[in-house]
Design a protein that fits this description.
CATH superfamily of the largest domain: Response regulator
Strand order of the largest sheet: 4-5-6-7
Number of domains: 2
Structural class: alpha+beta
Number of strands: 10
Largest sheet: 4 strands, antiparallel
Number of helices: 8
Distance between the termini: 56 Å
Strand content: 15-25%
Shape: elongated
CATH class of the largest domain: Alpha Beta
Helix content: 40-55%
Radius of gyration: 20 Å
CATH architecture of the largest domain: 3-Layer(aba) Sandwich
Order of helices and strands: HHEHEHEHEEEEHEHHEE
Length: 211
């Protein structure tokens, strides 16, 4: 398939490099500033998700189109969370692949989102990674969104209604238990010592990042 795609893209006037495994793909995409990267999830060696994740961590922001035989929602979410810009399940038409590549190239390289820092807490919105100092904190997608929202203005008190609306969407209004359970889990993950005071509950109002 890779050979057929390369031949088709060459016939359309594109310059194409081909990597046969994930390690080569990672090395090549770091070495060359490509207009776009077509990345198969099921690569030998490093899989496509890990290649994409490491490219974004290394500051490589060429648009990435992920190809996969799996079309479950969870797989699409995993690809997008890894940093992909678009997702095309197999089987697909070559015409659609070309159209998606044209759209990605028109969009161009996106700038890396700024890393949020609050005390020794760092949040990277691009890779969805969080650290306390050198310790990586593993957060779910919604946990990360909640922490990032609070960290954007760490001393401001966000009302529960604001957080439910902006993190979960309008349909979640009134579901305060969802917010409370997430806040409790995040507090436990972020607090590495007895004196830590991340995610402060302001009684009757909402939450803020720092005490």
């Amino acid at each position: 398939m890779a050979g057929l795609l390369r031949r088709g893209l060459l016939e359309e006037g594109h310059a194409v490099d081909l990597a046969s495994n994930g390690d080569d793909a990672l090395w090549m995409a770091r070495a060359v500033e490509y207009d776009a990267v077509v990345l198969d999830v099921m690569l030998p060696g490093l899989d496509g998700l890990e290649v994409c994740r490491q490219l974004r961590s290394a500051g490589v922001w060429s648009p990435v189109l992920m190809l996969t035989a799996r079309d479950d929602v969870e797989d699409r979410v995993a690809g997008l969370d890894a940093g992909a810009d678009d997702y095309l399940p197999k089987p697909f038409s070559f015409a659609e692949l070309l159209a998606r590549l044209r759209a990605l190239v028109r969009r161009g390289t996106t700038e890396r989102p700024a890393v949020l820092e609050v005390d020794d807490l760092r949040l990277d919105p691009a890779t969805r990674q969080a650290w306390r100092g050198d310790v990586e904190i593993h957060l779910s997608a919604k946990e990360f969104e909640l922490v990032a929202k609070l960290a954007s203005e760490p001393y401001r008190v966000f009302t529960k209604e604001e957080l439910l609306r902006e993190v979960w969407g309008y349909r979640a209004l009134g579901r305060t238990r969802t917010l409370e359970s997430h806040a409790s889990r995040v507090r436990k993950k972020l607090c590495l010592g007895a004196d830590d005071r991340f995610i402060v509950n302001v009684w009757g109002v909402g939450y803020r990042m720092l005490d």
